[in-house]
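Extended Data, panel c. Modelled sequence:
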Amino acid sequence: MQLRYAFRLYPDPGQQTTLAKAFGCARVVFNDAVRAREDARKAEQPFPTAGQLSRKLITEAKRTAERSWLGEVSAVVLQQSLRDAEMAYRNFFASLQGMRKRPKVGAPRLKSRKDTRQSIRFTANARWHLTDNGRLNLPKIGPVKVTWSRTLPVTPTSVTVIKDAAGRYFASFVLDTDPAADAARMPQSDRTIGIDLGLTHFAVLSDGTKIDSPRFLRRAEKKLKKAHKELSRKQKGSKNRAKARLKVARAHAEVADARREFHHQLSTKLISENQGIAVEDLSVAGLARTKLGKSVHDAGWSSFLNMLQYKAERYGRTLVTIGRFTPTSQTCSACGVKDGPKSLSVREWTCTACGTVHDRDTNAAINVKTAAGLAVSACGAPVRPGAIPAQREETGSHGFPTGNCAA
């Protein structure tokens, strides 16, 4: 299974200038590729192939006076930028033909030098390497200081250097994990759990455990409001406005980092303690358009569920997703009688059939587990057939997880 391990980079001023040149060259090559294909489309001509674009936009362009500065950066960076453009078109056409399972994507657009996120990618043939003192040596950039939070389990296949909106630099390594090592890290478990995600509590488990919602965005609203107010008062195009924009970006980055860390810790804990996990297929995009939209975005349910999914695949756990229209909050988990819809203000209710008093969220979590086929009767037999966990030797995926690092 392929994963990304991200580490913070600290380039010196000279390396920052060189990286800025590399970001700019990669952006120019990408935009040239998009323009070449758009010109071919308007002229009703066949799209130029990747080889033709590489020869025209890189090899021949370096010999011209207008694009001679392309030779100041690694050729691998430029080739990877062309591959990004190729992949963007491939995803666009697959989306048009209905062959793409993920959300639909539009046609590739031109990149701007004012984009808050810049990145370049080095593959193995770029001859980048890690030095003896733990620095990342990049071609035509030099050894860059890295803060290592952990060791890399295997040799990476590529590294992407990223500059985010807050002005921070990261090195994102792509590597193939070892199934045997993953199996040793995560022992087998006989526990199963159902999860009901919410806003009052971030998650309520079928065993009655309630996990409070940290509300990272709500807690930082006062600081964010002050930073945005200072930004709005700065003259556009001034250096003070650039400093204020950076301050706003850093404040938002703190919120996003805290939320991501919370999701990683909770998802790893649930995966390590339970062999089977059941969740609901929430319509996050629809809920985000309601009056609760800010709280829905603050919770970050999609990110959390994506982490559960790729960690379950990695460690051989079973993750079962039930339909979003399953009446988990209307059904009595004791007798199975559907008691009708209830408003969000009703947090406890009594079943009219058996008289059992239910906590709304705990009852929903139990029903999620039962609907997924993970519930166990008093004699130890499954209540209904469920998904069978894949053996550890069979688990894995050739895709990338949504998270930017493994846990």
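The two ends are 13 Å apart (CA to CA). This feature is highlighted in the accompanying rendering.
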